[in-house]
Amino acid sequence: MLSPEEWGIVALSLKVGGVAVLAILPVAFALAWVLARYRFPGRLLIDGLVHLPLVLPPVVTGWLLLIAFGPLGPVGRWLESWFGVTVMFRWTGAALAAAIMALPLMVRAMRLSIEGIDRRYEGAARTLGAGRWHAFWTISLPLALPGVLAALVLGFARSIGEFGATITFVSNIPGETRTLPLAIYSALQVPGAEAMATRLALFSVALSLAALILSEWLVRRTHAGRARHGD
Amino acid sequence: MAIEIDVAKRLGERTIAAAFTAGPGLTALFGPSGAGKTSLLNMVAGLLRPDRGHIRIGERTLFGGGIDLPPEARRIGYVFQDGRLFPHRRVRTNLLYGHDLAAPAERWMTLDEAAAFLGIAHLLDRWPRSLSGGEAQRVAIGRALLRGPEILLMDEPLSSLDAARRGDIMAVIERIRDELGLPILYVSHDRAEVDRLATQLVEIGE
Q: Cα(B67)–Cα(B49) distance, rounded to whole angstroms?
């Protein structure tokens, strides 16, 4: 079906997408939790910043990443001098771009499920002897779990499809940063590579559709579990 | 063991205030809907903070004089109106939730004893959503008892049940009162319920 080269592209995409969502998950969950549960000055600003990658032209996000993480950028210089690492033109940079682009979707999905938790369960847990943290780990988090999984799947699909920010930030290097969409774009530039572009595109469609169906199924599960025992 | 309550709390337009001492047996907090009976229980449980006043169980101060124990440190069993069983845990792990968190010295009932006392041994492996209203309320009572409480709070535990189930659960509550000797604060707006169960009556509101 796919050639070894194409499988390599798929494998790289899965690696980039997987690392991106797993790395950004704790950040996204913390943001979703704070936005769902707390009212404080600056909340709208945080909400806006989180959602920015959703509405900004991806090329702008990529360029901002380039400024921040480049060898002379504030974060890039710090990473270089403290850890001796750079994400420039590396697959880790592609994962970073994908993570930033997936963040708003993940925060939205998790925030909905956190807002859907009946907080009275947490109160019940407290009266049964659970401290705040214990109630969080044993009650709130398990009840939010379907939403967290849905966010992971959705974020993963979004990461796999990331194009604009990635190509701006880490360029289009075969074997390093050339993920599925970049490979399809490259194939379309070369005469005679339409077959490869078609195969990769079909693979993308299948992957994205599967992810959407899975995340929708997970979200429905949450609501089904909650429809009972409310009043 | 006497429960001494003297609290006031402003909630929006209303002020909820009550002062009474509840002795052993079942103390019914009786009054119309919206009088703040549930808020009062929540203050005793530590889920709602009074503006002023104090709450004591025997020699133990739960609230007042600079003390405000968190709910988990109050040793109170709370049976909610809707049962409020954790939907993602089976009956057994619902029952054991507070039991496992209690210090061994605080526990005075085992899972087997609670299951036998409430007649729920056959439900242990079920999910809460598969229980009838009466079964769910029994499990909720068992969960509160297994936590090893010094007093039991009950917020209209019969309101979601049909007449036949009400009789069953009332019999259970009488046995908690008489056989286990556990002091109970019981919220209700139903006169017949209160007449049958209460050893002491406190009117709330008006």
A: 11
